[in-house]
Write a structure and sequence with these properties.
alpha+beta; 18 strands; six-stranded mixed sheet; binds the ligand C=C(O[C@@H]1C=C(C(=O)O)C=C[C@H]1O)C(=O)O
Length: 340
Amino acid sequence: MTQQISALPASAFVPLDELDELSGVLGVINYTSGAGDPDISPGHLRFDLHMAHGTAEGFAEVWTTDRPVETGESGGIGYAHDGEHLLCAGRVPPSERYAEATRAAYTAMLELMESLGYQRCARMWNFVNDINADNADGLEVYRDFCLGRAEAFEARDFSDTSVPAATGIGSLGGGISFYVLASRTNALTPIENSKQVSAYNYPERYGPRPPKFARATYLSATEDRAAGQLYVSGTSSIRGHETLFAGDVEKQTLLALENIAHLVGSETAADYRIEQHNTLADLDTIKVYVRHREDIPAVRRICEEHFSPDAQVAYLNVDVCRADLSVELEGIVHAPRNEP
Ligand SMILES: C=C(O[C@@H]1C=C(C(=O)O)C=C[C@H]1O)C(=O)O
C-alpha cells in the first residue's frame, strides 16, 4: 500500500544489534540506555538518547538516503546532510537551570541550519531528563526548557506559524538532548488541530513561555498535494488546552488517538489543501511514551486496535511533559494512500 519516495526523508526502526548491516545512512538515533553527545565519526550522525531502561528495550531510528552524505560539527551541534535533508543534534548537560543553555544550544542549531541552507525545519525531538521536577528556582524543568526554546526561536525570527512539529518528552538521563530534521527545498506546511489550542497559544498557567511547536507538518517534494509526508507531533490527552482524564490511562490513550485521527484525517487535510485521507492505520514509525511501566500492556492493547499490524511501534517508559499526562504518541505518515 505504501511506497518510499526518495526525495522525502526515509526512516525506520532497527534493533540495536542489527546496526552493522546498514548502508546509505544519514543518521542513527539510538533510543538506548545512556545519553551521549552527537558523534559524526561514523560518517553519519550518531546520537544516543537515554530512553530505554536497558539495551533490550532500546531500538535505533535510522534515517537513510541514496545521496552522498556530508557531516560536520559547529558550536556543539553535530550534523549530517545530503543536499536536501539535514539531521542535526545537540545536548544541554544536566543543570540546575536550563533556559539559558537551551537558548544558546537552540540558537547554535538554528544558525547552523541557516548557514547550511536548510531552513525548512520539519521536525524536532526534545528529551528532557527530570521533565516534571522543579529547577533550582522552583520552575518545572519542562517550563524552564520551553522558556529557552521560545527565546531562541524569537531571536532567529521564527514566527509561531513557522515552528516545526515536535516532541517534548521525559528522558532517563543526559540533561536535554535534541535532534532536528530540516529540508532545503521541499515545501513545508505547519498544521494545527482544530480540537486543540495551538501549543504556542497556551495560556500562561502552563508556564512563562508557551511550548513552540506545530501539531504536525506536511513535507512535500513536488506540487502534488497527495504525495507528501506527515510528521505528527507528540500528542496527548489534551482538548482545548486542558488535560482530560487525569489518572485514567486508557481514556487518555483513546483521546490522544482521537486527536491524531482528527489531525491526519480528511477534515484537517482539506483545511490545508492536502489531498490525503489518512486514518490511524496509515501512521508508522510510532513512538508511544508511557509514564508508568505497568500501564504499557493496556496502552499497547488499545494501540493495536487502531494501528496497522505492519506499523513499527516502539513503547518507551518515560515521563510526559505535564504531570497529569500518563501517555503520549507520535508518528509519521510516510507515504500517501493510493485510493482517493
Ligand atoms: C503533549 C504536548 O506537548 C508535548 C511537548 C512538546 C514540546 O514541548 O515540544 C511537543 C509535543 C508533545 O511532546 C501538548 O502540549 O499537547
